[in-house]
Amino acid sequence: MSRRAFEVLKSCDTVAGYGTYIDLIRSLLDGKEIIETAMKKEVDRVKAAIDAALAGKICAVVSSGDAGIYAMAGLIFEVLKERGVHVVRPRDPSARQEGRPALVVEVVPGIPALASGASLLGAPLTHDFAAISLSDLLTPWETIEKRLECAAMADFVIVLYNPRSKKRSWQLEKAQSIILKHRSGETPVGIVQNAMRDGETVRILPLRDLHLAEVDMLTTVFIGNSSSMTYMDFLITPRGYRTKYQIG
Q1: What domains sit in the chain, N to C, each tagged with a CATH number?
Q2: Choosing a second label site near 43 at 20 to 30 A (CA), which of 18, 89, 189, 212?
Q3: What string of H, E and C letters represents the secondary structure of 40-88?
Q4: Is the dihedral of CA 174, 179, 184, 189 positive or negative?
Q5: Measured distance CA(142)–CA(8) in Å, rounded
């Protein structure tokens, strides 16, 4: 986590989050009120957190990675907008104007899986990339399929979030078949599980074998573009310096 996130957790008196994420930081939460909900209870969690903040508590909503990337920041703003809550940024002078009550909201930057996972692989995201979640719980599969097709056709490095779960077993193989229409089966693919946590694994395999990989919801998949390559145990996507400069 970022240092700012650590500071916020120390200063707040209430923490809301999904149980798995609360467990990751439970050692930092002694003496704090905890609002903990299960998967698919995100709306209830956000409503409870906002109620706590409106009651005068300093409340932090935690997510894994970065709160604004496939996480809770967007939903919090949606609920605040639905309620018509006056929201300001920290140190915003408008918070004190006209005596109007305001809720101070800070989105604390974190370290997303695409950044931590990329660092473990080497440098797969040095050029343009697209991040796509394979979870169709909130996004229709037809939309996901279209995004995969377009990203593959445009030769983006593709980062796949939520590649497989117990109830979603076929989406990764379907994504593989779509990308293989535009990319060689030898294209290197990086698979990172539990990046920077206990149980971390990092491996590289060719795109043609992706359907055989053991992945889960804690796995991030990095599919190289047409210029991506491996060197030793690393995955690299060149930026293009070789075409312009003498690097040897």
Answers
A1: 3-104 (3.40.1010.10), 113-236 (3.30.950.10)
A2: 89
A3: CCHHHHHHHHHHHHHCCCCEEECCCCCCCCCCCHHHHHHHHHHHCCCEE
A4: negative
A5: 39
Nearest to 167 by CA among 219, 218, 217: 217
Query: What is the spatial distance between Cα 172 and Cα 221, in angstroms, rounded to a whole number?
Result: 10
List all residues 6 or more positions away from 71 whose beta carbon is below 8 Å from its beta carbon: 63, 64, 65
Distance CA 87, CA 242 (A): 48
Instruction: List the Cα angle 177/210/119 in 5-degree steps.
Output: 120
Q: Give pLDDT tens digits for 71-83.
A: 999 999 999 999 9
**Backbone phi, psi, residue 173, to 5°:** -65, -35
* Global model pTM greater than 0.90: yes
pLDDT tens for each residue of 76-125: 999 999 999 999 998 776 655 555 678 999 999 999 999 999 999 999 99
Token pair belonging to 70: 């496939």
Report how far apart the first and last C-alpha atoms of the chain are (Å, whole number).
37
Q: Closest Cα partner for 9 from 61, 85, 74?
A: 61
